[in-house]
Design a protein that fits this description.
The protein is of the alpha+beta class. It is 33% helix and 22% strand. The protein has a single domain (3-174), classed as 3-Layer(aba) Sandwich (Rossmann fold), CATH 3.40.50.10360. The chain contains 5 helices and 9 strands; from the N terminus they run H-E-H-H-E-E-H-E-H-E-E-E-E-E. The chain is globular, with a radius of gyration of 17 Å. The chain starts with a helix and ends in a 13-residue tail after the last strand.
Length: 187
């Protein structure tokens, strides 16, 4: 790896840590909840989604997120690309806790993407699920994680809008508000 690439990866790591700091300050996740990550490493490095998967980028981004997820006692679900129907890599403990249905597919660099490959390599007991209902999400590169979030997703706005060349969208979820004009929503 040349110095220019190493410098870019270091800058990206610093920005990513800023994103994570801001995200976790604004989101109120409880132990055992699910954080969904969608990440186009291609978009991060300035290529079209699905055209330049980068394990180097995944190797920079996944460890600091996993560290925070483990500290908070959360489950991380890493979404693959459309070529595996946006299936997610999760830990076996998440499958057991939520009673998820496991499917059979292995993420590959060009069918799943670099981040799902890295998650598969890094998780202690990885499994693949097709559907999940996450409590919050981080979407890097417009990978459309919304299908894997609970029904009422609320965007989180922070000072960072991009990671590398990829647009970032952050969200948390809340329970639905039901009832009519006489309903009360606070305790």
């Amino acid at each position: 790896m040349d110095n220019n690439v190493a410098d870019k990866l270091q800058v990206m790591a610093n920005v990513w840590n800023d994103v994570l700091d801001a995200f976790f300050l604004k989101v109120n996740l409880r132990r055992g909840q699910i954080l969904v990550l969608g990440c186009s490493t291609s978009e991060v490095i300035g290529q079209r989604i699905g055209q330049g998967s980068s394990l180097e980028v995944a190797e920079v981004l996944l460890p600091p997120l996993l560290k925070r997820v483990h500290q908070l006692g959360l489950f991380l679900a890493v979404q693959g690309c459309e070529h595996i129907n946006r299936a997610l890599v999760v830990e076996e403990a998440c499958v057991d806790h939520y009673g998820l249905e496991v499917v059979t597919v292995l993420p590959a660099l060009h069918a799943g993407g670099a981040m799902s490959v890295q998650a598969w390599r890094t998780f202690s007991s990885p499994l693949i699920v097709e559907n999940i209902q996450g409590h919050a999400g981080i979407d890097i590169g417009d990978t459309f994680i919304g299908m894997h979030l609970r029904p009422v997703a609320i965007p989180i706005r922070i000072h960072v809008k991009e990671l590398g060349d990829a647009h970032i969208t952050l969200a948390y979820t809340r329970p639905r508000l039901i009832g009519g004009p006489r309903a009360e929503y606070t305790r």
